[in-house]
Amino acid sequence: MNITEIRKLIKLVQSSDVTEIEVTEGESSIRISRQGSVAAPVAFTAPQTMAAPAVAPAQELTTPSASDDTGSEHVVNSPMVGTFYRSPGPDSDAFVNEGDKVKKGQTLCIIEAMKLMNEIEAEYAGTVTEILVDNATPLEYGQPIFVITPA
Predict the structure, then answer these.
(1) 41 and 94: one domain?
(2) What is the domain extent for residue 40?
(3) Is the whole-model pTM more than 0.70?
């Protein structure tokens, strides 16, 4: 993918209602995301040898908590725009509750995006300290969802 093609993608994002686009061509991949009215390249990755996983990984940031000066808590942020669901169905129990211990790879929630249900998994073992979003509410990209204290 050359710079001319990338510029065309940026113009496409700027002139439409699309807020994010990811294109894979051969072994190269580019993601362009728009915040407000400005589009900017977010990431350009080197050639990949594996296909994308079917389950979206949770994006995580380490942030100190107001109650914990050691900074040992992690915030799990939404990897996409969509609707947050705590359980697999309306009559089902929640995947996790505050105080629950989670294992790496355990499903934390589902985010519905464009009629697809994306399971968000824990990236590490720990305890769910706080759930920051109410069930069935819209999420923005990067919005904090959970606070987890690593085990």
Answers:
(1) no
(2) 3-45
(3) no
